[in-house]
Design a protein that fits this description.
Distance between the termini: 63 Å
Shape: elongated
Number of helices: 7
Length: about 260
């Protein structure tokens, strides 16, 4: 189904479990004539035989976004899909960047961003309440920013006492980046600060590893893993069955004058 002018839905699919995908996202996907996105995300979407799938590699975000706008201008209803939330290191920013730098006519395209459950929220719920205080999310990818910027932001966040969620932590192209991040954080944080590796939360291959910053092993992490680094106010509760919860205290003492 489409209208005469076409439109774009930018849809967050959630962490991967369809039970964690919102009804609003499902409603938008049901209207789509075309699906655009990174191939594994496009493959997650159930769609009828008439829906055209435009799957691509993970480094062509702007090309995808431009293609979506062109299809919408041709009268198509396009769903641009991202894992998690499309606005958190996802396709929403690429779509608006393409429109911002494209022809003036592109600004007339109707764009609706559909929020999704981001990986950090799914991981936090699985772990307990590690985001009970202030936190930030940082991508370790240096595809779009210098590695020095990544390290400066990490140091600032750790020094400010924020819980840090690390996206894009490690890949074949960047096997050393997470280890470098841990080495930097060890110079700022107490060694007992909890660290969690939350992989594929909500999916059949889910895996959670709890450790601390002194012992965190980057070799246990892949690109499907959300790395959560606590702060000095993040605590571990050991349950009667031996399992553990994490939570971050809500109150922070005033600094000494």
């Amino acid at each position: 189904m489409t209208d005469s002018t076409g439109r774009i839905f930018v849809v967050g699919l959630g962490p991967g479990n369809t039970a964690q995908r919102t009804p609003e996202a499902d409603a938008a996907l049901a209207q789509a004539t075309d699906l655009i996105g990174y191939a594994p995300y496009v493959a997650r979407v159930e769609a009828g035989p008439d829906v055209v799938r435009h799957a691509s590699d993970n480094r062509v975000e702007l090309d995808r976004a431009r293609h979506a706008v062109e299809l919408a201008l041709a009268g198509r209803t396009v769903a641009v899909v991202s894992g998690g939330d499309a606005g958190v290191f996802g396709m929403a920013s690429a779509v608006f960047e393409a429109i911002d730098h494209g022809p003036a006519a592109w600004r007339g395209v109707e764009v609706t961003v559909i929020p999704g459950l981001s990986a950090v929220l799914a991981a936090a719920a699985r772990l307990g309440a590690p985001l009970g205080g202030d936190f930030c999310v940082i991508s370790l990818s240096d595809n779009l920013k210098p590695r020095e910027v990544v390290h400066r932001r990490l140091a600032a966040a750790a020094g400010a006492g924020l819980v840090i969620a690390l996206y894009n932590p490690r890949s074949r192209a960047r096997p050393d980046q997470l280890g470098e991040a841990f080495a930097l954080l060890r110079t700022i944080l107490p060694g007992t600060v909890p660290v969690a590796f939350a992989r594929a939360i909500g999916r059949a291959d889910e895996r959670v590893i709890l450790t601390d910053i002194a012992h965190a092993d980057a070799g246990q992490v892949d690109m499907s893993t959300l790395v959560l680094v606590g702060c000095p106010l993040t605590h571990v509760i050991t349950r009667t069955n031996g399992e553990k919860w994490l939570y971050t205290a809500r109150s922070v003492a005033a600094p000494c004058a």
